Structure formats: C-alpha cells, structure tokens
Amino acid sequence: MSAHLRIQGGREAVARAWSDALAASSGASVSKGEVSSQRFSNPVAYRIDRTARDVVRFLFEGDWDASVPESIDDMCHVLALQDAEPSVALGSFFRLRQIMLEHIEDEIDRAMLLQLDERIDRCVLEAVDRHVRCREQIMQMRIGELKRREKMLERMRETPVTELGEGW
User: Fold this and answer.
1) pTM higher than 0.85, yes or no?
2) Is 162 helix (H, G, I), strand (E, B) or coil?
3) For the chain, which terminus, N or C, has the lower number of CB atoms within 10 Å?
4) How many CB atoms lie within 10 A of CB 16?
C-alpha cells in the first residue's frame, strides 16, 4: 500500500497527529517532543508514542494478514483507567480515519481507500474489544476489594472488644 500512497509530512506526521489525539483522550499531559526514550519517566507518553507508531506502521504494511499491533492493548489499559465513557476514551481511535485523510496528498483510488478503511476498522474494533476487557478486569478487581473489606469488617465485628486490647 505504501508505494502508491503519498502522505503529507510522511508517516511521522500522521503518528504525531494521532499521538496528540491519543494524549487528549487519555487525559495525559504529554508535552511536545516527548518520545519513546522516556519510557520510565513518562510511561503514558511512551505508550501513546509507541501505539501511534505501531498503528501507522500497520496501516501501511503490505501484508493484509498482519495482526493488529499489541501496543493497542497497552493503550487500552491506560484509557480504561480513566473514568471517561468508552466513547470519549476511544474517540481518538475513530479520529484516526480523519487524520489519515487529512494527510493524504494525492487523490487516492477507491480500492486503496477501502483497504485503508478496513485496516482502520480492524484497529478500532480491536481497541473496543480490549478496552472492554480492561474495564471488566478493573471492575473485577474493585469487586474483589469490596469483598475483602466486607470480610475484614465482619471479622472486626465478631471480635470481642476485650481481644482488641487497650486503646480501642
């Protein structure tokens, strides 16, 4: 696909534009110029940058059978931790189509546009699936925490005051 598709500013421009959209949807404060080298000092910026680059690379690969990048899973973990509605959290994935169209220089034939569109749809659908799984894991963890608290309160209620010792 990349041989026939010319992009204004190249893949880097698309990756940067989409990184900005991902940062906005994640609620992260990612300043311009933060790149992958800051993996430990700003892990959210690192995940945003990595996901954007991996997805843009996936969109232009010639191999149709290539799987959707695993870095989408990392990004969905970050987005799931936000208390935003899924439509807000995943809005940047839907914005990818518009960003791509804004950066295409030439007229693009219908077949290539459909192929690009299908790849974007694969990324979006995978992101939705992974986001739902991440949210489910978070909810299971919260339920487990509530059950542990309930058991602890029940044990405290059953323990006689004399066994607690002085100071209680």
Assistant:
1) no
2) helix
3) C
4) 16
